[in-house]
């Protein structure tokens, strides 16, 4: 109890009892023993005092401009003291549950997040599309009406007993959810108190966990269907082969019957269907999905867990949404700059309000986004740099960092995870080999290469020239998308070269590639020069400008220079 009291968030709203979190945190040592006896007695008797079950319901808008009562979310303000007790009960229940329970429920599980849910959904989709020509995937995004508020305590207690929880704990949870005094507050007006015995109030610590346990038996009944869940966000996936959708339609019917048995109401108007089909030549006539006699709407894109998933699995719509939202917040950043706030404050504001937009689920969508989409997002970062007068990390660096952090967490992923077979460590003897293959961008990173880089197809300004010294090694590569006879000729001579002679300030003589199988440039660590080519004579004379681009940072002390990945030929 002492540890929980000392970790109380003092900014949380006060419950009906009027005891704020600051009091519990400041007096944790004095109150720990007293409340320990009270909570132990409550668990032993299986009774929760009515005074701590009391809650005040406030309405939180779901949209910036709500126009209907359904646009508000009812949130219960409960006692801060009771929330501390709920945390202890939640941790005990979590440690008592079997690890194999509901592996496709990604919410409230250790080392699982929205990234894992989306990644599992996309990986399953792509795997099925690759297995056979003509395969396609149907996704039904299910929406429930007030899912937390429809839990039946007696049915929940039965399911908890089936999971192996002690009878006294099940009785305590049942008492916690029944006979709850509640009142509604809108502005300065408060309604009279009424009592409810159904549902788990939104705002309680235990409610999300209890809901996931309440729906743990909602699983797929066929090998060609999958039900992915993140709390109440449910997706029914149908892996269709040979145009046989019977298992998918039967799964939806089974889900509809399960909802009726468990007092859950499906909102058909908010339930959407998305079809992913890579075969554009073959026209198909898909069977419509009907729930309760109403046809489910079919969409081209759906926003699931904060990510826009399109029917072609592209990320243009998602990145456009992120760029638009980030550009809107640049206005507030400019206002803070006009107030002459220090750069440190502007940097903190950028990190909290703008960079956080880009980092949401970045490990899922950034790696497969197009170069144009990344450049659109990077332009927002460059605008923020000009406003804050601070060097900000590019999105490629942020993406690497998040992938590295998530990879380290997944190294200890539980063996019961549905994605355990997708996480493995590359053997030591293969890491150097894989790092030299340019197409394996998602494998172990190559070793750093300090050789300067000359790219064919870019003509920078000749006003800033740099000299190459004889004996210096360089790597020659063509610019992405460069066409023409010069580019085709130069592409045959990509590799590592040695400067043998400087003819003039724009022309050099080089030797043949000395080590074509050497280490490729590490993405993000390229050399100091970019060349604009005028000709290439037998790969012996290079004519072009050797200058530093404006956005090329100064080389580090170790001789390397960091440049965004989009400017690297390895990209």
TrEMBL record:
Single GO MF descriptor: methyltransferase activity
Annotated spans, Disordered: 550-571
Residues in Reverse transcriptase domain copies: 41-309
Superkingdom per UniProt: Eukaryota
InterPro entries hit by this protein: AlkB_hom8_N (IPR015095), DNA/RNA_pol_sf (IPR043502), RT_dom (IPR000477)
PANTHER family: ENDO_EXONUCLEASE_PHOSPHATASE DOMAIN-CONTAINING PROTEIN, REVERSE TRANSCRIPTASE DOMAIN-CONTAINING PROTEIN
Protein name: Reverse transcriptase domain-containing protein
Taxonomic source organism: Electrophorus voltai
Species classification: Eukaryota, Metazoa, Chordata, Craniata, Vertebrata
């Amino acid at each position: 109890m002492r540890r929980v009291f000392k970790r109380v968030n003092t900014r949380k709203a006060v419950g009906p009892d009027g005891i704020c979190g600051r009091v519990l945190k400041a007096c944790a040592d004095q109150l720990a023993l007293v409340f320990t006896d009270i909570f132990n007695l409550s668990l032993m008797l299986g009774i929760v005092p009515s005074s701590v079950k009391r809650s005040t319901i406030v309405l939180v808008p779901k949209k910036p401009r709500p126009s209907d009562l359904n646009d508000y979310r009812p949130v219960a303000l409960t006692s801060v003291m009771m929330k501390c007790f709920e945390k202890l009960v939640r941790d005990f229940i979590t440690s008592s549950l079997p690890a194999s329970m509901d592996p496709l429920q990604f919410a409230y599980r250790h080392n699982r997040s929205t990234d894992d849910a989306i990644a599992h959904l996309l990986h399953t989709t792509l795997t099925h599309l690759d297995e056979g020509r003509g395969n396609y995937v149907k996704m039904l995004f299910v929406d429930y009406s007030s899912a937390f508020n429809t839990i039946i305590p007696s049915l929940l207690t039965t399911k908890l007993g089936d999971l192996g929880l002690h009878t006294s704990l099940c009785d305590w949870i049942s008492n916690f959810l029944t006979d709850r005094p509640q009142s509604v507050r809108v502005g300065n007006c408060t309604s009279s108190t009424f009592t409810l015995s159904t549902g788990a109030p939104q705002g309680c610590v235990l409610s999300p966990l209890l809901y996931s346990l309440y729906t743990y038996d909602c699983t797929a009944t066929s090998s060609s269907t999958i039900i992915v869940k993140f709390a109440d966000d449910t997706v029914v996936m149908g892996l269709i082969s040979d145009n046989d959708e019977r298992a998918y339609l039967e799964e939806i019917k089974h889900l509809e019957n399960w909802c009726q048995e468990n007092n859950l109401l499906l909102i058909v108007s908010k339930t959407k269907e998305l079809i992913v089909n890579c075969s554009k030549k073959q026209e198909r006539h898909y069977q419509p999905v009907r729930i309760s006699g109403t046809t489910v709407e079919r969409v081209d894109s759906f926003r699931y867990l904060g990510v826009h998933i399109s029917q072609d699995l592209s990320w243009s719509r998602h990145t456009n949404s992120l760029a638009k939202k980030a550009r809107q917040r640049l206005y507030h950043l400019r206002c803070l700059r006009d107030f002459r706030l220090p750069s440190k404050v502007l940097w903190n504001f950028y990190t909290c309000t703008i960079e956080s937009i880009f980092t949401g689920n970045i490990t899922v969508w950034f790696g497969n986004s197009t170069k144009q989409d990344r450049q659109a997002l990077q332009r927002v970062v460059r605008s923020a740099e000009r406003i804050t007068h601070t060097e900000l990390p590019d999105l490629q660096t942020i993406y690497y960092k998040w992938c590295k952090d998530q990879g380290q967490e997944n190294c200890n992923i539980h063996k019961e995870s549905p994605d355990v077979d997708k996480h493995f460590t590359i053997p030591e003897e293969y890491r150097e080999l894989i790092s030299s293959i340019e197409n394996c961008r998602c494998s172990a990173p190559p070793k750093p290469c300090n050789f300067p880089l000359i790219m064919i197809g870019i003509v920078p300004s000749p006003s800033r020239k740099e000299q190459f010294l004889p004996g210096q090694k360089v790597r020659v590569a063509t610019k992405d998308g460069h066409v023409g006879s010069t580019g085709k000729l130069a592409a045959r001579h990509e590799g590592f070269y040695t400067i043998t002679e400087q003819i003039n300030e724009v022309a050099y003589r080089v030797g043949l590639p000395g080590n074509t199988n050497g280490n490729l440039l590490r993405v993000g660590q390229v050399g100091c020069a970019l060349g604009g080519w005028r000709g290439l004579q037998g790969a012996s004379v290079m004519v072009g400008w050797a200058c530093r681009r404006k956005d090329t940072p100064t080389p580090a002390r170790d001789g390397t220079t960091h440049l965004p990945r989009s400017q690297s030929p390895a990209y």
